[in-house]
């Protein structure tokens, strides 16, 4: 974003631009969206657009950040208000539930989450949204459930975040009958990954929760 809005009118203008872009992304491919179309849908002058954004790429980047912050804010509120489950496994499922719900409730979120609109359109190479998300989630989970074992905490959470994002994108593209299987597979993989960090370790067999009864 070129500049931060400091007045209510400016904030409303930016919000209108982001909302317009989100709606267009739900209907059109990135390459088919133009700056002129964004301002037309937003109902703002082209000059106002360029006060805050140099191009459509920066709008999509700001939209990705807004979606990520909205998702993280709800997750953080769950932890702060003690509405999170008592085990890390159930807490992980709650976090996944928030993410999946926002895919359907927030316009454009499913298209730009974590600054990865399309593989051919990396939005900002200087900002790694996966890393930002991983850092925040790692802090929340480790503070609540502790860290166990020798697995690198940040790297493990980063792998988990990117894996989840890829599989949930796949879940959107497969037939509805196959969607539950993809989401279930994601849950299993994430449980295995995060278990190396969050599950108390047995010195011989590894994560306690992964042992057979």
From TrEMBL:
The keyword Signal does not apply. Residues 11-71 form the HTH tetR-type domain. Residues 34-53 bind DNA. The lineage of its organism: Bacteria, Bacillati, Actinomycetota, Actinomycetes, Pseudonocardiales. Pfam families: TetR_C_15, TetR_N. One of its GO terms (molecular function) is DNA-binding transcription factor activity. The keyword Transcription applies. This is Transcriptional regulator, TetR family. Keywords: DNA-binding, Transcription, Transcription regulation.
